[in-house]
Design brief:
This protein is an alpha+beta fold. It is built from six helices and seven strands; from the N terminus they run H-H-H-H-E-E-E-E-H-E-H-E-E. Helix 1 packs antiparallel against helix 2 (25-44).
């Protein structure tokens, strides 16, 4: 049987149905549920056999006996999703390792034991923050393809935050800097937004590049 996923799966539900054929609320609901199920499967990112999905759904709705018990169903789903996630993770780890191995060869790039790499764009002369301090910075955040996902300069004002409340990569990176300095950091996904990413702007497994300018440090009492 042919494996079908994504938009092809959605097309399976719409294959012989037009808007004019939806004669009742139940028809519209049925069509909408098919679309919703298809989107859910597509979001998982795992190839499925759409013909078997359709057959299984029809039999379940008709009350026919399942090939698997409820516990088996849940176990199969967990196992297959975990296997797919592990395969995806392995690919992204390999890509990340390859990038950092090549990036380290560039002039001016320093590799930290944490996995972060950095370049000093402008040295500073002030003190260094600790993880307990509040800091004020300007920054530009980019993906590896050069896409800018955040830029405090464009907003016209720096950002102030407690250093212990940001991603692990920043908690490691900022204490390397002296006040007045500007660094470029290359932060691996496991020290950024991990396997899930963040919203629509930072995809899963993203290595992030930040140009950070450390403007101020405010020690926190206690």
């Amino acid at each position: 049987m042919k494996i079908i996923a994504g938009s092809a799966f959605i097309a399976l539900f719409a294959l012989n149905t037009s808007a004019q054929q939806l004669q009742s609320g139940a028809d519209s609901l049925s069509y909408a549920l098919g679309q919703d199920i298809a989107r859910s499967i597509k979001s998982i990112g795992v190839p499925v056999n759409a013909k078997i999905v359709s057959e299984s759904l029809s039999k379940a709705l008709a009350g026919e006996a399942s090939l698997f018990g409820e516990q088996e169903v849940q176990q199969i789903i967990r196992q297959q999703l975990m296997a797919a996630q592990e395969a995806k993770t392995a690919i992204f780890k390999e890509e990340s390792n390859r990038f950092f191995a090549e990036n380290q060869k560039k002039d001016g790039v320093v590799a930290d034991s944490s996995g972060i790499q950095y370049m000093v764009l402008q040295p500073g002369t002030g003190e260094r923050p600790t993880k307990e301090d509040e800091v004020t910075v300007h920054y530009i955040g980019k993906l590896l393809d050069g896409t800018t996902f955040d830029n405090s300069y464009d907003r016209g004002e720096p950002i102030t935050f407690n250093l212990d409340g940001v991603i692990p990569g920043w908690q490691i990176a900022l204490p390397m800097m002296q006040k007045g300095s500007k660094y470029r950091f290359f932060i691996p996904y496991n020290l950024a937004y991990g396997e899930r990413g963040s919203g629509a702007t930072i995809p899963p497994f993203s290595t992030l590049i930040f140009d950070i300018e450390l403007l101020g440090i405010t020690p926190q009492e206690g």
